[in-house]
Amino acid sequence: MPKKTLTAEFKRECVEFVIVHGYEHKDVATAMNAGLSSIQR
Question: Core-most of 14, 16, 30, 37, by most CB within 10 Å?
């Protein structure tokens, strides 16, 4: 399976969920169908 490239918009959405809405990194990763390490960068 090829490596998925995450767009700047996708990253901003993830940051918003964590910072503004208070979600945990693991919950955002699951909801956005991305790996946890990708969200934590």
Answer: 14
pLDDT digits (tens, 9 = 90+) for 5-41: 889 999 999 999 999 999 999 999 999 999 999 888 7
Q: What is the pTM of this model?
A: 0.76
The long-range contacts involving 31-37, CB below 8 angstroms and separated by at least 24 positions, are 34/4, 34/6, 34/10
C-alpha span between 2 and 24 (Å, rounded): 27
Distance CA 38, CA 12 (A): 12
